[in-house]
Amino acid sequence: MAEAGTLHDAFIDELRDAYDAEKQLLKALPKLAKAASSPNLRQAFLTHRDETQGQISKLEEVFASLDEKVRGKHCDGIAGIIEEGKSVMEEDFDEAAMDACLIASGQRAEHYEMAAYGTLVAWAKAMGHDDAADLLQQILDQEEAADEKLSALAEGGINQEAASTAHPQSEDGEQYEDTPARPVRTPLKKAAGAGRGASAGVARKSGGRR
Ligand SMILES: [Fe+2]
Q1: Which long-range contacts (CB under 8 A, 24 or more apart) does 31-38 make?
Q2: How far is CA 147 from CA 95, 142, 151, in A?
Q3: pTM for the complete prediction?
Q4: What does the pLDDT read at residue 168?
C-alpha cells in the first residue's frame, strides 16, 4: 500500500495550484483592463498583470528553494472565478456599473489568492521552509495591496457613479419620478391600483390586520 501523503505533499500540491492560478490570471487581467472604462481601474488591472508576471517568477524561486520541479496543476477554483467574470463582461451594463462589476470579479480572484497564499505561508513556516515562506509572504502582500486598491477605486467614486445612474437624484436630493426604484417616495393615493410596489404595499397592510 502506498504511504500516506504528508503536509509537505499537500504544500507542493497547493503550490502547483497557485502557479497555475497565476498563469490563468495573467491571461484574464488584460481582458478585465480592456473592459474597464475608468482609466484608473484599467491601470490597476494592468499593474496587477505585471505583478502577476513577477509572482510567477517568485513561485518558480519557491519551487527551486524546495528542490522541486516547476509544475502547475489546473486550478479549478480560479477557473470558475474567471468564467464568472467573463459572463459579467458579456452583460450590457452602463459603463460605471460594468466597472463596479469588474471590481467585484477582480476582488473575488484576489480573495481566493489571499486565502491560498495565507495557507501556503503558514504551512511553509510550520515546516521550516523559511525562504519559501518569505517569497510567499511577498506575494500575499501584493495580493492584499491589489485588493485594497480595488476597494479604494470602488469606494472612491465608481460605486457612487454607478449608483447615481441606477437612482438619479434631483438637485434637492429627491428621486426623480421616472426612476424605477421609487416605491418609498410614491404617495399611497397615486400608487393605489397601479404598479408592483403599490400592490406589495396593500398586501402588507391587509396582512397586518389579520
Ligand atoms: Fe496573484
Answers
A1: 31/85, 31/86, 31/89, 32/85, 32/89, 32/102, 32/105, 32/106, 35/89, 35/98, 35/102, 36/98, 36/99, 36/102, 37/95, 37/96, 37/98, 37/99, 38/99, 38/153, 38/158
A2: 21, 9, 6
A3: 0.79
A4: 85
* CA 55 to centroid of ligand 1, rounded, Å: 6
Q: The domain containing residue 20 runs over which residues?
A: 7-166
Cα(143) to ligand 1 centroid in Å equals: 6
- Kindly state whether residue 162 falls inside one of the protein's structural domains: yes
CA–centroid distance, 166 to ligand 1, in Å, is: 33
17 and 107 share a domain? yes
Q: Distance, CA 19 to ligand 1 centroid (Å)?
A: 9
CA of 28 to the centre of ligand 1 (A): 11
Q: What is the pLDDT of residues 108-138, one digit of tens each?
A: 999 999 999 999 999 999 999 999 999 999 9
